Amino acid sequence: MDPPLVNDSSFSPANPSSYTLSEIWPFPINDAVGSGLRLAVNSTPSDKDISTAAAAAAAAEESTVTDLTAGWGGRKARALNSEEDESSKMVSLSSSGNEVVRFVRFCDDLNVIVRIDLVESVTKKDSGDKKRKLCGSESGNGDGSMKPEGETSSGGGSKATEQKNKPEPPKDYIHVRARRGQATDRHSLAERARREKISEKMTALQDIIPGCNKIIGKALVLDEIINYIQSLQRQVEFLSMKLEVVNSGPSTGPTIGVFPTGDLGTLPIDLHRNIYEQQEANESRGSHPEWLHMQVDGSFNRTT
Amino acid sequence: MASADKPINTDVPEKDVFALHFLQSLSNLRRQNTFNSPEKTNDRVKKIKKAAYVSMARAAGGTNRLWSRALLRRAAKENNKIVRFPRRKKRVTCLRRRSNRRDPVEEEEAERLRNLVPGGGGMGTSKLMEETAHYIKCLSMQVKVMQCLVDGLAPK
């Protein structure tokens, strides 16, 4: 492990964007070294690469990236400034080494993301998050805040991403998480969310329709739903035909009491309730073909 | 009957409200029949059917639902009345998105469903599913109540 290198003297005058670091870091850096705070470059292949590259950079006296390592236990704070790309490239040219070359290549890949992540304590982490957001907005790249999963570093990056996602406040948008191998652009995410919503509604619909739970496949389920609605509408038609027979029949029997021609009191409802319960009681008789037959007979009797 | 073996979910459709409206319109129709000259049977059947649907739409919450709103609007248009519903939404008439990526079979089925559910032409797919669920519940309630009426009121 390399000894921690501190060069804050070359930091502030070299680039104007380093004020964020100095603001976040009010205490002297030597103390930070003791407390296990580490500043590294984002999206490097592994921790050791970061440290060696940053150490080499610091030794070349041109560096803008500081790496303070006291504990390697996954606690890291990372900073990468877009304005520093040229200078870091110069550093890599001056100081040879495989790690540095890789580091610079990574810098070229993600050359616009400014991110500072301080994970020393909770309060310091919060302030670091705020500052990181500020830096991201300053750099003018929305991608850094939109998709945190796409740019995690390969070494210990998942842990850092989880830590980063945690302190974000809950918002009113739908949270969609892309699985491995799924597309992460916003159209795909929106489409996936829409499809999930539709399938959820479809399962709710499936529960309503009797005997529809066993059917697999969206098209078949939709077909069944359509058939069910059509059968219900046909039943309504038949029943209205039958009611027409009853309604316009001779005004004898119970119809007089049922339909009082005038204002409607609560009488029909009570009657209807009684009828309803009665019908519930003798539900067991299979009425469908019977009344259909009866209905046809009745309508013919009416027309003739 | 397909819907007879499943109990009606009582919280969504109010069968009492439906029965009240329906019986009221039936009595109105009956009065018209006795006073006016006798119409043809088909017209009376149509009127009763329309009364049943309008009562169902009223019982289902009036203009709160998209399908009941469409039903009431259609019925009012047939009566040549100009209606203004409260809380009218600004709605695009055709929200259907044409896309080649989607499953064509599924889209075709959804299109058929749109034609069946009243007011389904302006809905998106997820909204269509929601409205269809409510519409099916109300339809089964309506069928049950009408069946009860027929069974109870048929001359012995």
Automatic annotation (TrEMBL), chain A:
Q: Give the location in the cell.
A: Nucleus
Is Transcription regulation given among the entry's keywords? yes
Q: Which Pfam families match?
A: HLH (PF00010)
Which InterPro entries does the entry mention?
Answer: bHLH_dom, bHLH_ZIP_TF, HLH_DNA-bd_sf
Composition bias (Basic and acidic residues) maps to 161-175, 182-194
Q: Which domain of life is it from?
A: Eukaryota
Q: Read off the PANTHER family from this record.
A: STEROL REGULATORY ELEMENT-BINDING PROTEIN, TRANSCRIPTION FACTOR BHLH79
Q: What is this protein called?
A: BHLH domain-containing protein
**Gene source species:** Brassica cretica (Mustard)
Which part of the chain is the BHLH domain?
182-232
Which spans does this entry mark as compositional bias, Polar residues? 7-20
Residues folding into a coiled coil are none
Q: What are the top taxonomic ranks of the organism?
A: Eukaryota, Viridiplantae, Streptophyta, Embryophyta, Tracheophyta
Which segments carry the region annotation Disordered?
Answer: 1-20, 127-194
For this UniProt record, the keywords arranged alphabetically read as follows: Nucleus, Transcription, Transcription regulation
Transcription regulation: is it a keyword of this entry? yes
UniProtKB/TrEMBL annotation, chain B:
Q: Could you tell me which InterPro entries the record lists for this protein?
A: bHLH_AtIBH1-like, IBH1-like, IBH1_N
Principal location listed in the UniProt entry: nucleus
- Keyword check for Cell inner membrane: no
Keywords from the UniProt entry: Nucleus, Transcription, Transcription regulation
Family annotation (Pfam families): IBH1_N
Q: Where in the cell is it found?
A: Nucleus
Q: Which residues form the IBH1-like N-terminal domain?
A: 18-78
Name listed for the protein in its UniProt record: IBH1-like N-terminal domain-containing protein
